[in-house]
Amino acid sequence: MSSYVQPVSEQQSVVKQTLGLKRPQLNLVTVGLIASILLAIYLLFTQHFVQPILLIIGILLGYTLFHARFGFTSAFRRLASVGNGQAVRAHMLMLAVAVTFFAPILATGFTFFGGEATGNISPVGVSLIIGAFMFGIGMQLGGGCASGTLYAVGGGRSVMFITLLFFIIGSTIGAAHFNFWMKDMPAFEPFSLATSTGLGYGGAWVVSLIIFAVIALITVLIEKKKNPPKLADVPSERGWKRIFRGSWPLFAAAIVLAVLNAITLLVRETPWGVTYAFTLWGSKAAQFLGFDVESWGFWQGDTAALNASIFADTTSVLNFGVILGAFLASAAGGLFKFSKITKGNALASVIGGLMMGYGARLAFGCNIGAYFSGIASFSAHGYIWGIMALGGTFLALYLRPLFGLSVPKQNDSFC
Known about the structure:
Distance between the termini: 10 Å
Shape: globular
Transmembrane segments: 26-45, 51-72, 93-114, 126-152, 159-182, 202-222, 243-267, 317-336, 348-372, 378-399
Helix content: 55-70%
Subcellular location: Cell inner membrane
Number of domains: 1
Order of helices and strands: HHHHHEHHHHEHHHHHHHH
Strand content: under 5%
Radius of gyration: 20 Å
Keywords: Cell inner membrane, Cell membrane, Membrane, Transmembrane, Transmembrane helix, Transport
Number of helices: 17
Family: Belongs to the TsuA/YedE (TC 9.B.102) family.
Protein name: Membrane protein YedE/YeeE
């Protein structure tokens, strides 16, 4: 999820330098593999046997996200700024594949290890609307969404460490304010296309596919009207080597991400999410500093997580896997390198991280937990999240230049 888009002449030079044309950083690959193996062994002997499986899934998610540069932030920005809907159509394919897998899993409740599968279904109310809008602004200033922050950190993008830190802080503040937003602000009951309408999972699947097709068609019509620049072709390895080096097609990554999310549901009984772990990490730090975290509404009824190891938390393990997977992907492509931080993008990362963290807590999740997994679970709140985050993106287009962050123009080409 790049925070800027360069004109063609500059872009071609950067693409040659950064996308699949460098020698593998074998020392870093070795470090990443050793770290992954050691962590998996530690999880196997100290935690539930599911944890090392989730670590592997997280690594595969991070590897896929990095190789495809699969963006949520950039997809929304391209559509909002110049009308390029290629990445949004990849989202629709991802969601179509996801609901196809989620429907029978949720209908039967089947999981691999005997528990019952449950989707991410949350209320639609003031907190969702405000939180998702905040998140949309924040991800455009912070340079990445929740998953994008993790894989950018794994890839060595220095400013994203700032985004991650303040993402965690914002999530923690949101947890402290949880009761106000959940109890004092109006909201409708959670609404599922499958169970709240009488359609069942089969009918909800059909309706979902129609919605995705309509959204994809709308993006095509927008492109015909605006004639935006297309995503640039980037150099990559050929044949089986492309698995390890170079750029993956967005549509291939969309399918892989959907399958991995379904496997996550089958393994841990709930879909992929990211920001719960940020709240847990921040709340543990706040507890260490003397705050009465257990009295916060977010943690009432779930204090066991505060007193357990972060490695006992499935979302944390998935997050660690995403970072490791992105690190391995960047090193295999010879791309791992810490990037320059400027005052402008540092300040934008602080503000963006805070807004994403706080917004995610209000909106019952981020681009993964609310948008991807929410829609895949047939929850109405996932669609509202996407609409409001896109609205926040439109506003952020006017804010980005204040921090020295560029906005795509009609004569730019995307990489």
